[in-house]
Amino acid sequence: MDVELHLVDTAKSNENGSDKAPPLVILHGLFGSADNWRSHIKHWQVTRRVIAVDLRNHGRSTHAKGMGYEAMADDVLGALDLLGIERFDLLGHSMGGKVAMTMARRVPQRIEHLIVADIAPIAYKHGHETIFQAMRRVEREPPKNRKEADSAMAEFIESSATRMFLATNLVRNEQGELSWRVGLDNIEQDYDSIVAAPGGTGAYEGKALVLRGGRSDYVSDDTLSAVKQVLPQAKIVTLKEAGHWLHAEQPERFQEEVEAFLD
After folding, report:
1. Choice among 185, 192, 217, 222 that is catalytic
2. Distance CA 136, CA 167 (A)
3. Is 94 a catalytic residue?
4. pTM recorded for the entire structure
5. Catalytic residue chosen out of the listed positions 61, 94, 179, 216
6. Using the 8-state DSSP alphabet, how is residue 54 labeled?
7. Catalytic residue status for 179
8. What's the N-to-C CA distance of the chain in angstroms?
9. pLDDT digits 0-9 by tens, 35-58
């Protein structure tokens, strides 16, 4: 089936130099969406066109079977083709970072700068079981308000920040109850593809920046050899006080590092 991606595109809202730099394409992580990047979009759109993507089964995009990185890369490239965008800067966080690395391996000639946020090009162990349990708990007894949803998720997830993040995916259905807008069945059924290494082959020889959180174990020192194999030109920058959601935990520092690299 054709996958139609929802985009937040600043092309029509920005007249302040957005044509002077390549568009910046942003890819969110698992259970994220373009909406999570609104403050960064607002900041960066002053100087360039920004396109934030809802990946398949996320946000307002099509629900479709399969979460493989080759398929998700095809989705994004197809959306950019429809917009007539040939060259662009690319930023991906977590799962979106693996999509970005897949794209960089496959169409390196189209990418001006590559930014990967807190993910390495390796296969990870399963690690979202409690999140799936919490979301299924909400699904079984649809809450009437966000307080009820939070209480249901708290049975499985201790972190209030994680529960708040997941709650950004709740929308009201026709019965007035809160339900998940993500394609939860498709995500859970193909979770093995999400924790797998990115698609494509070989190395991306272009300009690359890898931002990692000092309090995150996603890009540990042990993974840096794998990073350099796939991104041999990568500059590694650690945001010491940030965890995995480094763009939310240290937004100003995150923006500064991205802008310095793009400039």
Report:
1. 185
2. 13
3. yes
4. 0.95
5. 94
6. -
7. no
8. 39
9. 999 999 999 999 999 999 999 999
- The residue whose two tokens read 């989705």 is 75
Active site residue 244: yes
Q: How wide is the angle at C-alpha 129 spanned by C-alphas 126 and 131, nearest 5°?
A: 125
Amino acid (1-letter code) at residue 215: R
pLDDT given for residue 174 in this prediction: 84
Identify which of 79, 157, 91 has the alpha carbon closest to the alpha carbon of residue 119.
Answer: 91
Contacts of 26 (CB under 8 A, 6+ apart): 34, 37, 40, 41, 50, 51, 52, 53, 91, 92, 96
Measuring CA to CA, which residue among 52, 64, 66, 51 is closest to residue 21?
51
**What is the mean pLDDT for each group of 10 consecutive residues in the chain (263 residues)?**
92 60 97 97 96 98 97 98 97 98 98 98 95 97 95 96 95 90 97 98 97 97 98 97 95 97 94
Cα-based angle 164, 253, 96 (whole degrees, multiple of 5): 55
Question: Is residue 67 within 8 Å of 190, Cβ to Cβ?
Answer: yes
Q: Count Cβ atoms below 10 Å from residue 25 Cβ, excluding itself.
A: 26
**140: phi then psi, degrees, rounded to nearest 5:** -65, -40
Task: Yes or no: say if 183 and 63 are a contact pair by the CB < 8 Å rule.
Answer: yes
- Taking the C-alpha atoms of residue 38 and residue 34, their distance in angstroms, rounded to an integer, is 7
- Do the Cβ atoms of 244 and 216 come closer than 8 Å? yes
Both tokens of residue 244? 């995995």
